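Q: For a teaching handout, I want to show students what a protein-ligand complex looks like in token form. Below are the inputs, and the small molecule is NAP. Please produce the holo structure.
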Amino acid sequence: MLTTMVENFPGYRDGILGPDLMAEMRAQAERFGAEIISGDVTSVDLGAAPFTLKVGDVVEQTNALIISTGASARLLGLPSERTLMGHGVSTCATCDGYFFRDKPIVVVGGGDSALEEATFLTKFASHVTVVHRREELRASKIMQDKAFANEKISFEWNSELAEVKDVQEGVVTGVVLRNLKSGETKDLAVDGVFIAIGHTPNTSLFTGQLDLNPNGYIEVGTGSRTSVAGVFACGDVQDHVYRQAITAAGTGCMAAIDAERYLESLED
Ligand code: NAP
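A: Here is the structure, written as tokens, with NAP included.
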């Protein structure tokens, strides 16, 4: 729902807007009788079947549950970053890199994601500046070696984004960089800003009730099964590696099949 053009979902050779893709999926699910309730789940009890979910005052009970709450890209928290999201600011190079052909961009972060995105973006961008808050990268050595060897990538060490410009124009025209050691600021003209400072899986509802990995993602065993029988997980809430719409849809199909078989086994 948050992305603009989706260029890599099979079946849409000219691309499709994220919200339009979701509207298609919703209509297709409803054609098969899916009932959709919109609301924020405020609490879950997975202690015993039937499981209980609260959506405000509404209480739902179920024998099988598929969790697909996704992961949220971490943001820097600048008002200008939020205003210009989708207008030059992005959290997904695979989704949006294509729009920055022959243009200079910055990538913020010093982990594997930041360097992977920076390296990927050099296929399109004229130059990629990686802005990192320390002078040492967190990324693996192999990713570092690749990035250091790439002539299109340069680094701004000990630096942070003080602001993304230009909110007035409604499009990214540059960034203000602040050196964290000297406190000095300087302008850098760019057309795109990619924030790659990690993701947070949306699993706070399930803490203490399901096995999570050390980074908070839901642990799945065979297929989509979680540590609680009858509870299944799919998409980015259980996958920090691929994080694509199509891989999420694929694991969603796996979860649907697993849930159906589980319910059949209860009837047996
Ligand atoms: P990560 O390893 O947590 O790195 C996040 C980076 O963002 C760090 O360099 C961190 O700086 C920086 N950062 C965090 N908050 C910030 C803030 N508020 N302002 C400025 N900078 C900030 O996350 P990731 O790179 O997304 O990787 C997540 C996991 O996936 C890792 O285990 C990684 O190895 C794996 N991964 C692997 C590959 C691959 O192997 N191809 C690709 C992508 C991801 P500090 O270093 O100062 O903390």
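A: Two things your students might notice: Residues 24 and 30 are 10 Å apart (CA to CA). The radius of gyration is 21 Å.
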